[in-house]
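Changelog note: in this version the structure field was regenerated for every chain. One regenerated record is shown below for reference.
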Amino acid sequence: MAPPAADTDQQANRGHKSTKAGRGGREKKKEKREARAGSQKERHNPRAFSVSNIVRTQRNVQRNLDRAQKKEYVPQSDRRAARVEEGPPPLVAVVGPPGVGKSTLIRSLVKMYTNHNLTNPVGPITVRTSKTRRITLMECPNTPTAMLDAAKVADLVLLCVDAKFGFEMESFEFLNMMQTHGFPKVMGVFTHLDQFRTMKNLRKTKKLLKHRFWTEIYDGAKMFYFGGVVNGKYLKHEVKQLTLLLGRVKYRPLVWRNTHPYVVVDRHEDITHPSKIEEDEKCERSVAFYGYVRGTNLKGGTKVHLIGVGDYGMAEVGALPDPCPVFDKEKEGQTLNKKDTKLYAPLSNVGAVSFDKDAVYIDIGRANYTKKEHLDLPRTENDEKEEGDESSSSSEDEYDADAPAGLLKSLQDVQEGVDQKMKYSSLKLFKGSKAVKAGANGDEEEGLGQVVAKKQRRPMQDVHELADSFRRRYEEGNALDEDESDSDSESHSDSDSEEGDSDGDVSLDGEGRDSHNNDGSESDSESDESGSDSDEKSSDEEEEKRAWKTNIAQEAAMNYLRREKSFANLQQLVYGTPGGVDSKVVSEEDAGNASGNDSDDENDSDSDEEFFKLRDKSKKSSASSDAAGSGGQARLEDIQLGENDSSRKMPDGHSGMAYDMNAWLEEGQGCLIESIRDKFVTGNWGGGEDDDEEQFDDFEDLEAGERYGPNGEVIEDSDDEAPAGMTDAELREFNARKKASKKSEFDEEYDESKKGNVGKAGDEQAESEYVEALKREKEARLKRNKEEFGIDGEASRLRYEGFRQGIYCRIRIDGIPSEFVESFDPTMPLVIGGLTPQETERGLIRCRFKKHRWHKKILKCNDPLVFSVGWRRFQSITVFSTEDQNGRYRYLKYTPEHMHCQATFYGPQVPPNTGILAIQRLTGNIPGFRISATGVVLELDASSKVVKKLKLVGTPTKIFKNTAFISGMFNSDLEVSRFEGASIRTVSGLRGQVKKSIRDGQPGSFRATFEDKILLSDIVFCRTWVPVEIKKYYNPVTSLLCKSGAEGWRAMKPKAQLHVETETPIEVNPDSIYKPIERKERTFNKLHVPKSIEAALPYSSKHKDERKRKKKSYASKRAVVMEADEKKKYTFVQAVNTIRNEKRAKRKEKNAERRLAKSKEQAKQEEKLEASRKARKRAKHRADGKIEAAQERKRLRGS
C-alpha cells in the first residue's frame, strides 16, 4: 500500500503492488531472511561487465581518441579584453555584390535589436544586442579598396549571396582577401529564395551552394536562408535565427590585430579654424576622428596610418564617454527602454543629430516650449498687480538668450529670414554695454568703444591684489575651517533659506572679516513661520538676491584658494611638490601636532591603514604665525622641511628667509639635530616604550599569514566576521567580497596545481584544463591591474598603458589634405591603423609569391602591382627570382605556372609572416579575376641578392695546341684583368680558363688554355652573374582623396596597357628575333692509309673499297639467248600480267564512280545537318548573349 500522506494538502498517489507470490516473491523473501541472518553473499560476476565485441570496442576507443585529438589546439596569444562588455563591439561586415540584399539585412537586424526603422544604413552602426554585448554593423561597398579595408578589420563577415543567381566573382575575391589578412569568422546568407518556383529546384540549389561554400570556408560553416521581403525587411523568424547565433559566436584572435591598435572611425569633424579656410580653401586641415579603440593599447606618441590618405602623427588623443554603453550593474537608474541607448549610427541620420558633408544638423522638433501667456495657471493678487509691468516689459525678459532653453525658445519665435534680420541686427560686446547696430557709422562705433572701455575697464592688478590679500588672510589663520567654508559657500551659492546649525553658519562682511551668525536658525524659522504674507516674501527674496551679490569677489577668491588646497594629486602625495615647502605629505606625528585638540584629526592619525595625510595649510600657517608672534625661537614642529635638498636657495618669506637656521645650531636635549639622530644607522634604534607605541603599528608576516601587534601579540584575523552596525546592503556586499576572495584563492591554487601536472603521465584531465587555467590567470592579472590603478587613477593608467581597447576616443590629426574633407564618402570604411616604429621605415621586402590560379595572365617582371600589406595599400615594381640549390637567387622574367617564386619590391617594412595580396589593376571594367597573386613576407633587407645570368661570347683567332688567343669577349685590358682566372667553355664542351691579356690584336684579347685543342669554328663563352637593381618606386593608393575613389587615383600603367590604350605597335628589336639557323655541310677528306701500314694489317682490317671502273664489266656486256621453252613461258607470264593490269584498271574506275555517288549523297545530308546545327548554335548564342547582357546591366548598376 501507499504510505500515508504527511500533509492533507499533498496529493497521495497509489504505489506499485509488491510481489507476494510466485518465484519473485519467494526470491525476495529468501533475500530478506539472509539479510536478517547476515548470511547473504555478494555476487561478483566479472563477465557481466566485460566487452562483448573486442574489435568494435577498440574502434570506438580509437575514434574517441581521434576526436579528442582534433579538438586540441595550440592556444594563441589573445590580447582582447577578458570580459565582453569591456572590449569594443565586434565589427560585423556585410559583404556581397550589388543587389543581393545587404542594406535589407542591416535594416532587419537593427529592427530586431532596437525596434528602430533605419531608412538609410550608412557607415558603422553600433547596436546593443543584450545587456553585455554590442555589435557594429557595416556595409561593404563593391570596390576592391573597400573590400580590402573590411577584410582587415572585420571580426565576423556575413557573406550575402543571391541564391537565384549563384556565387559571383566578387565573393571569391573577398574570400581570398580574408585568407591573406587573417581570415575571420564567415557565415553565409543566401537571399532571393522566394524566386524558386518548385521545391525540387530549391533543394537542389541549396545543396550545390552548401557544398561550394563549404569548399571555400570549411565543412560545417554556418549558412542562413532568407526568403521573401515584407515592408523592406526579411521575415522575422529568419532574422531571429541569425541574431541568436550572433549572440553566441566566438571570435578568433588574429596575429596582426593582436599586435597593432586600430580605430574604425564612426564619424569625423573638420575643426580647422574658419579664418584659415577663408584665406586658403586648399589649406591643410585639422580633423577629429571618433571611434572605439580596437586591437592593442593606443598610446599618444604612436604614428598612425589613415588608410587611403597616408601616415600621420596624432596631435591629440582623448577618451570620451561611450555613446552606446552596455548595462552596468554598479550604476543605478539605467534602463533599456530607450531606442537611442541601444543604437548609435551617426552617419545614418539616427536621432536628433545628423551629419552632412559640410554641416551638422540638430533636430529640435520634439522640444517644444510653451510660452508663459499660453499657460492656464491660477492667478493671484500679486500677479494681477504686476500684470501691467509685465506687459510693458519686452519678451526678452521671459528667458535668458544665452541659456540652451532660451536658444530653443528663440528659435521657435523665428518668423523672418536671416537676410531681413541682418538689416536691423545688433551685437553686444559686453554684458550691460550698448549694442552695436548694423547701420551704425564709424564715429558712433568709436564713441561706443570708449563708453564700453570706461564701463568695463578694470586693471588686472586690482584682481591680483584682491586675491593676494585673501591669500594672506587665509594663510594667517583668519579664514574658517574647510568644512565650515564649504557649508557657507553652498548656502550663499544656493540662496540658502533652509535651516542650518548655529555653529556652522558663517558669512563674510564687506571688509572680508569673519562674522559668526549664531541666531541664523531662529531667524530662518521666524521667516518661515511668517511666510504667509506675499509682500514679506517678495521683500525677503529681494534681500536674498542682493545678499548673494555682496562680497562676490571675496567669495570667488576664497573658493579659488579652497579648491587649490583641496586638490590632491597622487604623484604629489607620494613624491611631494617640487618646492618642498608646500608638500602635502606629512607624517602622523606632524599631523597630530598640527591638529592641536581636534578630535577628528586625532582619530584619523590613529588609523592603521593610512600612511600619508594631507597637510592642512590653514592650521600650518596659523601655527607658524603664532610662533612668530610670540617672539621666541621657532618650535621643532614649525620648521617645514621638504623632500628636496634643504641647501637649495628658497625665496624669502615673511620673516626674511624660508628656513630658520638657528634651530640647526641649537644644542642640548630636544634640539633638532638630536631629534633626527636616531633616524640614521649610527643612532639608537631601541627607544623607549612610549616611542615604540607611537612609532610602530601592527605588522603582518606575509609568509605565515599572521598579524602581530606593537608589543608582539598575535592578532586574530577578524575578516570573517562582519563589523557591527552594518545595514543589509552593506552586509551582502561584505559577504560577496569575502566569497569572491576565497574563490580567487582556490582558483589560483587549482591553476598552479594543474600547471604542475601537465607533464605528468596519466593526468589527462590536467591537459584539457590547462587552457582554462591560463584564461583564469589572465583575468586575475587584469583584475590586479585595475585594482592597482583604481578609479581615481584612470588618467595615470591611460598615460602609462595607453588607451585600452573598448575606450571610445577622439583623435585629432593635423595636416590632412583638404581633398579628404571635400571628397568624403560615408559609405566607404574609414580606418586608422597604428604603426610600430619599424613600419614607418621603407626598404626592400622579399616575399614568397605565387600567381593566383584564377588569374588569366602570367605576371611579368618590372611591371607595377598594387600591394596590400598590413594597413597600407601602395603600388610598387616587383622583381621575380627563384632560389637555386647553391642559395643563389636567380632572376626570372615571368612568374612560373603553379609554383611559388621569390618576389622583391620596395615599400614600407612589415614583420615577417605578414600576408601580401597583389592586384594588377584597381580600376576599369575587368571581366576576370582581379586578384593577381598572394604571398607572405620572408625577410627585410636594405640591398638585393637577385642576380641575372650574362654570357660573354668570344671567338678564337690563333690556336696553339691547348692554348688559344680569344677576342671579342672583352673591350679593354682592364676588363681582362678583372676576369683573370675565370672559367670559360666552348660549345663543344671543352673547359678552359682566362689567363693574361695580349698586346697584339683587338683590344680586350686574351690568352686562354683549354683541356684539348679547339677549332677555329668553336665559340667560346664566359658565364657570369650580375646583380639586378630593384627600382625604388612607392606610390600609395590615396583613394579617399579623390571624389571618384580609386578611379581618380593616378597609378603607373604597365607597358602593355599603354600600347593598347594608345594603339602603339610593339617595338621590335631585330636582335631579339629568332632566325633560322643555316649550317653548311662539312666535307671530310678521305682517310689515307699508307700502303706499308695497310700491307702489315690483317685482311679483315684492310681497306676493301673498289675503285670506280671506266669501262663496263664482262657480265654487263654479254647477251642472253633464250630457248624455245623459255620463250613460251616468258610470253605466258606477260599475258597473265596484262590481264591482271586490265582488271585492276576496271576495278579502280568502278570504285571512283562509287565514291563520287557516295560523296554526293553525303553532301546532301551534310547540308541538312548544317542547317540544323546553325539553328542550334544561333539559339545558344542568343541565350548566352542575354545572360551576358544581364550580367553587364547588373555590373553597371553596382558601379
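Spot check on this record: Residues 126 and 136 are 4 Å apart (CA to CA). The mean pLDDT is 75.
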